[in-house]
Amino acid sequence: MIIGSHVHFGSDQILGSLNEALSYDANAFMLYTGAPQNTMRKSIDLNYLNSALKIMQEHNLSMDNVICHAPYIINLANKEKIDSWNFSISFLKQEIKRCETLGIKYIVLHPGSSVKHSTEEGIANIIEALNYVINADTKCMILLETMAGKGSECGKTLEEIKQILDGVNSSNIGVCLDTCHLNDAGYDMHNFEEFLDKFDNLIGISRIKCIHINDSKNILNSHKDRHENIGLGTLGFETILKIVNNAKLKDVPKILETPYISASDGNKELVYPPYKYEIAMLRNGNFNANLINDIREYYK
Ligand code: FE
Ligand code: FE
Ligand code: ZN
Q: How far are the Cα atoms of 32, 95, 115, 133 from residue 41, in angstroms, in the given order?
């Protein structure tokens, strides 16, 4: 099973991200090249990269299983403020360059929110922008993430995703499924095979290059986008277990984006990453209903 989580990208850049992933016993990971909420970025330090590459080799962790996530504030769907739209395009281009320097092959992108535009207009804007961003030299593949449909998000149905893929003048573009988002968008993950058939007929399974594995705090079709820890939400452990073990998606990296566990030591509020535990649960196939408390104990 190729599984990991999102990790930090701090002062020691991809080396720190890798070490964090290894501390969770992960063999895949997803990073942001800076804070996900902003576009302040430092240039890539090749010393950290070379150290990371050595350790990755020792651990048999392939660059195919390292994913980048573009920052949330990139919005290709809204052209109302043309400066912001142009900034999103140029920032995404730079982000792709950073990925190419790191040797990262996949970059996950939220398609965008149309805001005051219609979904149709939003999708047209996304297509236009992606056609500026992706060219024949682009080595890194953009993966459109399936969205929950919160607010005016585009990419909440497979049809919308397909429309964007079809509009882009390149086959160098793929899809990142997000199980929480799919549930919130109205796709019942309890019938995952049915969903996958639908996806295959419409888009083709081979275009799925990454899957965000999250449980959901909300009911089917809620359009909320609030992630829950594995087994504690609407999807439930058995459903998620089936998804991560699906033979058709065997080679696709699975990335956890579940919430940190809050704890208090009496003086201050602390948060602990759940990933080591969740990865272990999914690998051994046994749900631990006491997950939250066990994580608090482990990090205490
Ligand atoms: Fe995302
Ligand atoms: Fe996601
Ligand atoms: Zn989400």
A: 10, 9, 26, 19
